[in-house]
Amino acid sequence: MYAILMCARNEGKIIAKTLDRILNQTIKPNYIVVVDDGSSDTTPQILDYYKEKYGIIVIRRKDRGYSAVSSYVMANVYNAGLRYLRKKAWKYLFIVPADMKLPKDYAERLINRMEGYGVASGHPDRPELMKRFNPDHPIGGGRMIRREIFDYMGGLYPLNFDHESSVIHCARYLGYNVGHFKDIKYSLDRIGGKGHPTKYIEWGRAMKDANYHPFYVIGRSIKEIILKRRLIRGIQLMIGFVVQPSSDYPDYSIFLREYQKNQVNLIIKGLLKKFRLY
């Protein structure tokens, strides 16, 4: 029915608890794949134990010297696990962070709600975390993704910072809904890493690779500069988008541009109505 993909780096203090919660799910996964991203603590030994006792799949990567969390490098880490999983049979891919506190019926409840959805997740019980995300989008950690989405994308994430959004764009292009369910709760021990210092430049590059609408990118940059008071990040986003050369865009890019143009129009109309100019 479903496969679990987890990426871990120096998670020795918490990963055993997370694996136990996975193993205790009311619907058992077909595969549990953990990518050890160059851990130097007790993570490798703990994973060896679970591999020997429970048959989980462990894929090891060399230490690059820094965490891939919240950076474009994360796509490479996930793809190490996806290369194994694309040869196996499963209907849904469940992305599980190493610090996820899973209720034992989380996977079952989410699977039962996947009718018509390409990507969906539960709802973390961290209000401060939700401020960082689009309230209508599935959350990266805790999301479930249909096999058809990855099959359409060639079985792997695109190698850029926008890899998590790519599955959302592709799901919409294929006619599926995306979202998260507020009544399916879970917890996280952490909010997330700071990521690479140039990640907003890479994000801008990724937006160009996906053929984002320029007005949408300008809007995101303005949001960073004015609403979030992050001048450097907003400028980096625009720089990345402008300097990235055009390339062969994914098939869903035309659909994405139309969707973003409609979103921009709705925002503009909302602002005009607010100030009684429309």
The tally of beta strands, per DSSP, is 8
**Strand content bin:** 15-25%
Low-confidence stretches: none
CATH superfamily of the largest domain: Spore Coat Polysaccharide Biosynthesis Protein SpsA, Chain A
Total domain count: 2
CATH-derived architecture of the largest domain: Alpha-Beta Complex
Which H/E pattern describes the elements? EHEHEHEEHEHEHHEHHHH
The count of helical stretches stands at 11
Q: CA-to-CA gap between the ends?
A: 50 Å
**What is the CATH class of the largest domain?**
Alpha Beta
**CA gyration radius, whole angstroms:** 19 Å
* Class derived from helix and strand content: alpha/beta
In helices, the fraction of residues equals 40-55%
Helix-strand blueprint:
Elements: E1 2-8, H1 15-23, E2 31-37, H2 43-54, E3 57-61, H3 74-85, E4 92-95, E5 100-101, H4 106-111, E6 117-124, H5 127-130, E7 143-146, H6 147-152, H7 163-173, E8 177-188, H8 199-209, H9 214-227, H10 231-243, H11 253-274
Parallel strand pairs: 1-2, 1-4, 2-3, 6-8
Antiparallel strand pairs: 4-7, 5-8, 6-7
Summarize the structure.
The chain has 278 residues and is an alpha/beta fold.
Tell me about this structure:
This protein has about 280 residues and is α/β, with parallel strands linked by helices. The chain is built from eleven helices and eight strands. The protein has an eight-stranded mixed β-sheet, sandwiched between helices. Helix 1 links the parallel strand 1 and strand 2. Helix 8 (about 200-210) runs parallel beside helix 10 and helix 9 packs antiparallel against helix 10 (about 230-245). About 40% of the residues are buried.
